[in-house]
Write a structure and sequence with these properties.
Its main location: nucleus. The protein is of the alpha+beta class. It folds into two domains: 166 residues, PAS domain (Beta-Lactamase), CATH 3.30.450.20; 48 residues, PAS domain (Beta-Lactamase, 2-Layer Sandwich). The protein is 24% helix and 23% strand. The chain contains eight helices and nine strands. The strands form three sheets. Strands 2-1-7-6-5 form a five-stranded antiparallel β-sheet, sandwiched between helices. Strands 3-4 form a two-stranded antiparallel sheet. Strands 8-9 form a two-stranded antiparallel ribbon. A hairpin with a 5-residue loop joins strand 8 and strand 9. The chain is elongated and about 65 Å long. The protein starts with a helix and ends with a helix.
Amino acid sequence: MRLAVGYLKVREMMKILIPCGRTLTGSSNDSIYAAVLNGFLLVLSEEGDIIYLSENVEEFMGISQVDMMGHSVYDFSHPCDHDDIKKVLTPKTSEKMNLKADKLERETISFFVRMKSTVKSKGRAMNLKSAAYQVIHYIGHRFDKPRGMEDADKCPTFYLVFIGKTIPHPAQIDVPLDKDIFVSRHSPDMKFTHIDERISEFLGFTSSELIGQSVYAFHHALDAKTVFSAFET
């Protein structure tokens, strides 16, 4: 029943996403689209329901397309990230589409969410009840209901269409650092627990002078809001 209802919602969605007068036709290139995207396709309703997912979502999250479609995105996201999702689902007055040079320009939406993942190291899968969380970077656009469309009352006000890409854990990244980069580690209260000796080349401090100090004591006062939001959970 859930999938049947989901199919009906997909049909309504296509009335908004596909311009009038156009039809969908098969293509011999359809099979390579997912590989080219280097991610998976996600379509959300205005309530946060998962209207559509590309089949390759299982490669990134370990959960099949069938198991996720029709459910709410809140069922698979970390509780601490629900407020961020609600902000994305709430239209802002500044997010209005502008008509320039006869082209419809939409503001790009980009955000990060921790999603349930059953993918373990070496590609092995675990049970959904034991799932961990994987950071997903979603980037996409909002598609509003066209004015004057038929059966407008039956269609949602808008849909959100995203490409989701996994963000690897820092511990899994083994990339040589550029000479202009230094690495630091911090405790939960953002005190330095480790920092590269190269810090002296950039800021003039030695690592021993910074260990035990809070990073908040070194940034400019006008940057406080930006710094706090970066570490907000």
